[in-house]
Every structure is written in C-alpha cells, then in structure tokens.
Amino acid sequence: MMNPKNRIAAAILTLAGTLVLLAPVRGHADADPMRLCTDERRSASYASPGLARPGELQANIEAAARDLGMRATLTPLPWRRCLELMRAGEMDGAVGIAFLPFTQEIARFPMQAGQVDKTRALGVARIVLVRRAGSDVAWNGPRLGHAGKPVAVAAGMQAIIDAVRHAGGEVDYGAKTDELNLKKLVQGRADLAAGYEYDLAPLIREKYAGEVEMGQKSLRETHYYLAFSHRFHDANAGLAERMWNRLKEIRR
Questions:
Q1: Checking DSSP bridges between strand 34-39 and strand 93-98, what pairing results, if any?
Q2: What confidence tens digit (pLDDT) does each residue in 51-87 have?
Q3: In angstroms, rounded to a whole number, what is the distance separating the alpha carbons of residues 36 and 178?
Q4: Do 118 and 228 fall within a single domain?
Q5: Nearest in space to 73 (alpha carbons), one of 36, 122, 39, 30
C-alpha cells in the first residue's frame, strides 16, 4: 500500500502534468515582437518612420513578419545608436544596413555559398556626388579628379565614407545632414558632397536648383539588407532564413 506522503506527491505530479497538457501553446504571433531599428533620417524609398504612409522597405518587413505569424517593431534611431544596440543584442536587427567589413562584425546577413546573397537584399541605393554648378571637379570613375577639399559626407554614413575613400578621396564628415553639406558646397567650403541619390535629388530640386548639380555616374551602388544581431540569429537561425526568404518573395 502506498505511503500517504507518496500518494500526495504522485497526485501533485499528475496534476502538474495535466496542467502542462492543458496549457495553450503560444504561437509566433503571441511571442515577443522582433525588435528592429532603422536610421531616424527619412529615406524616400526606404523606411519612413513615424509617417502615416510607411516607406516601401518598412512596409515589406511588416508584411513579411505578418506572413510568418510574427510581429516586428521598427524603431527610428540615430544610425550609430541603432548599430550599437544591435551589437549589444538589445535590438534584434537593423533595417537598411550595408554589407561592409565593419557591419559583418556586428550582424548576420543572408548568405549563399559564403557570399552575401544580393537576391535577398531589401533594395539597392546609388551613391552619387554633387558639385557646385559649373565646377570642374570631375568624377568619371574610378578616381576623383580636381577635388581640392575633402568630400562632404553626412556623419555616420559608413557606406558612403567607404565609397569615397575607395575612389581616393578624403572625407569630411563633420556635418550631420545632407542639407548642411549642400550648404557647404554653395558656400565654397567643400568641392564635392556625396550621398544617396534618393536623399539628394529632392533636396536639390526643392532648395538648390541651379546652385549645385548631381553627377550622372554613381560612385557606388550599394545593396541594403535586414541584418540580425548575433544574439538573435544564434537563437533563431531558422526564423531569420524564413524572414529573408519571404522578403525576397515580396520584392519580386
């Protein structure tokens, strides 16, 4: 005959097992949202945080997460802050990040056969140069010509800085925005400014038409990705792959 204490223990174990079996299984949609950050500066065809009409990139990520039964929160931050939080694992990923030696150290990208998989990029952006109207400063590729001063680049834009340096130019990243750099051009404090075509084109059209001109040849075309922190990817490698694959399908 079972000892009363043993009967009580057995009853507790049976009850615990029953509760586990009856407990609802949490689906992906009930899980914590995927925490993503992006550059707080608006990019016309990319993320447009805080706007009633989101950018294409932002909308695609939200759609991909929804299709996978997940939720994704996208927080606009200063770009350096976004990258540091991802490095620390406090953000699960970054939206609109280029595949560079620096970013490879802090994030995981979609890969194929040891190379970054450009077919699963979020989009492509052209890095272009702007000069004062009538200037003889030239960019015909692959090297800069007649630039007497460092090329003005918005602070924190590492992909643009790398592109300018690769072309043999020095970089002035003292200003925070493209508009401040265009003012430098007009005032003669810079000979060239570099930035993304989708950022510079509307600025020039609306505020600097006739004063500055954009080069037709791109300095570089850069692919942008959703990249995950090492911490998130190590724990959710399968989910990361499904997210990248779904984004590829949406962009077709």
A1: parallel
A2: 444 567 778 899 999 999 999 998 989 999 999 999 9
A3: 24
A4: yes
A5: 36
